[in-house]
Amino acid sequence: AKLYSRAAGEVAVTVPERRYDFAAELLVTAIEDSARTGDPAAETVLRTAGDMGRAMGSAAHALEKVLEGLGYEPRMDPDGAMVLANCPFHRLAREHTDTVCHLNLELLRGIAEGSNDRRYTLVLDPGNGRCCVRGLVRPNADRGPRATAEGKKPR
User: Fold this and answer.
1) According to DSSP H, which parts of the chain are helical?
2) What are the tens digits of pLDDT across the range 37-94?
3) Are 85 and 103 in contact (CB under 8 A)?
4) What radius of gyration do the chain's Cα atoms show?
5) CA separation (Å) from 39 to 30, 45, 46, 82, 87?
6) What is the dihedral of CA 137, 48, 31, 105, to 10 degrees?
7) Distance CA 82, CA 130 (A)
8) If DSSP codes are grouped into helix, strand and coil, which group holds residue 81?
């Protein structure tokens, strides 16, 4: 007879990778900040996503490393654009598309800014079977691993 015991830590496996735990942490942090400051929740979610992204990008110093770690599965198109083959918040994005896709955009812009990666302009570009954010190649962009998001002012 086989004996099984409960693991001391939590174990979860999803294929493709989903990160609902990360989404929950981001959203709860934003809710608490909104309650503390009185700022609108929607604005606070986007600001929190950008702040968390910048911190992650700064710590990793590499855009793709953070994207892979979160489960986005970055791929390059023949034209050099970056496509994210997976959305780690897929089920949430289906139910709350506008909120989750804008959260994704700000998170990814923050990661790019934090990692100083200037190769792409990150835009919303929803499509079937992939993340709603796409990285368009910037004209005359440095091809090294540095990029920020267009339209974002340094903080």
Assistant:
1) 20-37, 41-60, 63-70, 90-95, 97-114
2) 999 999 999 999 999 999 999 999 999 999 999 999 999 999 999 999 999 999 999 9
3) no
4) 17
5) 10, 10, 12, 33, 28
6) 0
7) 11
8) coil
Spatial separation of the C-alpha atoms in residues 103 and 23, rounded to whole Å: 9
DSSP 138: P
pTM, 2 dp? 0.83
- Residue type at position 123: V
Tokens for 36, please give them: 């503390």
Name every residue whose Cβ is closer than 8 Å to that of residue 20 and which is 6 or more positions away in sequence.
Answer: 89, 91, 92
CA distance 18 to 143: 30
